[in-house]
Amino acid sequence: MEERSKHIDQYYIVGLKNRDKAIFEKVYDLYWSSLYISAFNVLRNKEQSEDVVQEVFSSLWNNAESLAILNLNAWLFSAVRYQVFNILRSGKVRTRFENLYIVEELTQNIGELKLVKEDLHRRMLEGIEQLPPRCREIFILSRIDRLSHHDIAVKLAISVKSVENQISIAQKKLRISLKDLAYLLPLLFYRS
Question: Which part of the chain is the RNA polymerase sigma-70 region domain (predicted)?
Answer without folding.
Answer: 38-90
